[in-house]
Design goal:
By secondary structure, the chain is α+β, with helices and mostly antiparallel strands. It has 12 helices and 9 strands. Strands 7-6-8-9 form a 4-stranded mixed sheet, with no helix packed on it. Strand 1 and strand 2 form a beta hairpin. Helix 2 runs antiparallel to helix 4, helix 5 packs antiparallel against helix 6 and helix 5 packs across helix 7. The longest helix is centred in the N-terminal third of the chain and has 39 residues.
């Protein structure tokens, strides 16, 4: 134990100044009883005892300013590595909660579209018209015979589940330092983003001039999930999973292209091998005044409707107009003699380069799929006031 500060007493003679230093150890704490008792006045030797406080060597050292020492990284004054990790985890939890939320929204949207597809119901289109129904009932709405929205519903549901799981996950694996769930999430969101880009290309090329808000909303959700997921990875980690992303992207493009090619060739070959005699379809719905006026307007501008007698969608298109109005339309039957082996479409249909049935040709535009009356009115420039001009 280090010595405590000491106190010295000097004896001063009355005839001459004689200093005598008498050191003793001071206690670590002082009290009145611990101090030596001295009588005031002149001692028998003629000395005056004067109490003088002294400072020990340790006190001098403590009084001197200590050199500043740079704080170590592990000191309490500097941010610890655990706090940095905790902040990073908080950011990750927030990101994965966003992923779970967006995935849930996408799941609800695609579940609604799956219901419409399985029940053959018309989709509610906020912008009006029948573009949504046309696109959602086209040949591109199925992949290998499975409704496309069903794939989307499964993908969004899986993303939402992974987002909830990863928001509480701590274990890190894989050589990238990320968990298996995070790597799996990257693969799913990459496939969704590539598929969305593929369908946007089809939307712009095959359905020019038409709009499907459900398709655009799904694409926005897919791209958002993709970029939020990638943001959780650093540059070096992204380089490690780049091969996985390229593989997934290639697989998605090959699968979609093969599906649509098979669907196209399959329908053509089945038509060539099947013999169907021609028959007329009966329209049971009564036409409204607006439908009759629109049919007359379409006839006056030379609009044509191409179809086939065996096509259920063509019958549905005529049912939109009703019995009286459908007879006014310029309808072109592409298989007037029925379907037999080696049968070709009517020359007018070949010249129109049809890709499916039904197909409208309005003001030089070739539009595939069923159209609502309101959409046909917009495309043809028909106004509700025009019905007063026709009987």
């Amino acid at each position: 134990m280090a010595a405590a500060p000491s106190t010295s007493f000097f004896s001063i003679s009355s005839s001459s100044l004689i200093f005598r230093r008498t050191p003793f150890l001071c206690p670590t704490s002082f009290s009145a009883s611990s101090l030596p008792q001295f009588k005031k006045g002149v001692s028998g030797l003629g000395h005056v005892l004067v109490q003088v406080n002294c400072v020990s060597e340790r006190s001098k050292q403590s009084a001197e300013p200590e050199p500043e020492v740079a704080p170590s990284p592990s000191s309490s004054d500097s941010p610890s590595s655990s706090s940095v990790v905790g902040a990073d985890e908080d950011v990750g939890v927030s990101a994965y909660k966003w992923i779970a939320a967006l995935g849930g929204i996408g799941f609800l949207e695609t579940a609604y579209l799956t219901y419409l597809k399985l029940t053959n119901s018309d989709a509610f289109c906020p912008t009006g018209g029948g573009s949504c129904t046309t696109i959602l009932t086209s040949d591109y709405s199925s992949v290998f015979g499975v409704p496309l929205p069903l794939f989307g519903m499964l993908a969004y549901g899986l993303v939402a589940s992974l987002g909830l799981q990863l928001s509480t996950e701590k274990k890190k694996t894989f050589d990238t330092g990320k968990s298996d769930g995070e790597i799996f999430l990257v693969g799913i969101t990459t496939s969704m983003a590539v598929a969305s880009a593929y369908f946007l290309y089809i939307l712009n090329t095959e359905f020019a001039g038409e709009m499907c808000l459900y398709c655009l909303a799904s694409a926005t959700l897919s791209f958002s999930l993709f970029f939020i997921t990638l943001k959780r990875f650093g540059l070096q980690e992204l380089q490690k999973i780049l091969g996985l992303q390229l593989f997934v992207a290639s697989l998605v493009v090959i699968a979609l292209t093969a599906s649509y090619n098979i669907a196209g060739s399959g329908s053509s070959s089945s038509m060539m091998e099947t013999e169907i005699p021609y028959f007329e379809t009966e329209i049971t719905k009564e036409s409204s005044p607006m439908a009759i006026a629109l049919a007359k307007h379409l006839h006056s501008i030379g609009a044509k409707l191409y179809g086939a007698f065996w096509c259920s969608h063509c019958l549905d298109q005529k049912e939109f107009f009703g019995r009286e109005a459908a007879k006014i339309l310029d309808y072109v039957e592409c298989f007037p003699d029925g379907v037999t082996k080696g049968t070709k479409m009517a020359q007018a249909c070949l010249d129109a380069k049809l890709e499916g049935f039904p197909t409208w040709e309005i003001n030089g535009q070739v539009l595939s799929g069923e159209k609502q009356l309101s959409e046909l009115a917009t495309l043809s420039g028909f106004k509700l006031g025009d019905k007063a001009e026709t009987k």
